[in-house]
Design goal:
CATH architecture of the largest domain: 2-Layer Sandwich
Radius of gyration: 19 Å
Strand content: 25-35%
CATH class of the largest domain: Alpha Beta
Structural class: alpha+beta
Number of strands: 10
Helix content: 10-25%
Order of helices and strands: EHEEHEEEHEHEEHHE
CATH topology of the largest domain: Alpha-Beta Plaits
Number of helices: 6
Length: about 250
């Protein structure tokens, strides 16, 4: 009889092409699947709470899968951390309810985006922050961030996705309405961090929000324009996509 498992993971996404398995490319899902097979002899495909993109990091990604092997949770965690590359760590392994699914059971997610504001970014931080030296109007960026709170159609901040494009050609219409519960910038020395909590996020949505708020900080947009940009539902009207290296999936709420 199989047991349903829940893993909480942290990873450095720099050298990976995202979460989802892609033929011939290194991905987090493939690394985890391979490690589980080496440990248990079972070939499973762990389902993540979402698909982090190439270069995006995680502090608390969640994965679920079923195993037949009767292995204690602490032994599975220890074995996975011995088998996985150092860039991927299992923070917790636990048996879950039979109907638990990392993605379908998720109620909301927290993301962080980190910007290094100093003149010289330390080389040991360069893979994990967006180094952006120069003047930014932080008050305007905070005002813009507050405009995202509540329920909105975020089509203006969604990148194109081949899977979604294919569905749009068929009978399915992409639902771009999401609810944002928290959206705020925090400053600590040379580090500027954006934290956002939402019911869900569209493809590249957080990076596009950040890119547009950076444009607000530079005076290319006014903070008061955000409601208008949301209403346009046009990605071409908003700011550039911020680099992947500054983005972290912080945690998943169930």
């Amino acid at each position: 009889m199989s047991s349903n498992w829940k893993l909480t993971l942290a990873y450095d996404g720099t050298d990976y092409c995202g979460w989802q398995v892609q033929p011939g490319l290194p991905t987090i899902q493939e690394e985890l699947s391979g490690a589980l097979e080496r440990i248990t002899g079972e070939r499973v495909l762990p389902q993540g709470s979402g698909r982090t993109d190439a270069g995006v990091h995680a502090l608390g990604q969640v994965a679920s899968f079923a195993l037949k092997a009767p292995i204690p949770a602490e032994n599975l965690q220890r074995a996975l951390n011995r088998t996985l590359p150092a860039a991927i760590r299992v923070l917790q392994a636990e048996r879950a309810a039979e109907d638990f699914h990392a993605r379908h059971s998720a109620r909301s997610k927290w993301y962080e985006y980190r910007i290094f504001r100093g003149e010289i970014c330390p080389p040991f931080s360069a893979r994990y922050v967006y180094a952006l030296h120069g003047p930014l109007r932080l008050d305007a960026m905070r005002q813009a961030a507050a405009s995202f709170l509540g329920e909105h159609d975020f089509r203006s901040f969604m990148a194109s996705d081949p899977d979604r494009t294919a569905r749009a050609r068929g009978s399915e219409v992409e639902d771009c309405v999401r609810t944002i519960f928290a959206s705020e910038w925090y400053e600590n020395g040379d580090m500027l961090t954006y934290r956002v909590h939402g019911s869900g996020f569209l493809h590249h949505m957080v990076r596009n929000l950040v890119g547009t708020m950076i444009a607000v900080g530079r005076g290319q947009f006014q903070a008061g324009e955000i409601p208008h940009l949301l209403a346009l539902r046009d990605r071409r009207a908003t700011g550039a996509t911020a680099p992947a290296r500054g983005l972290y999936l912080h945690s998943v709420m169930y």
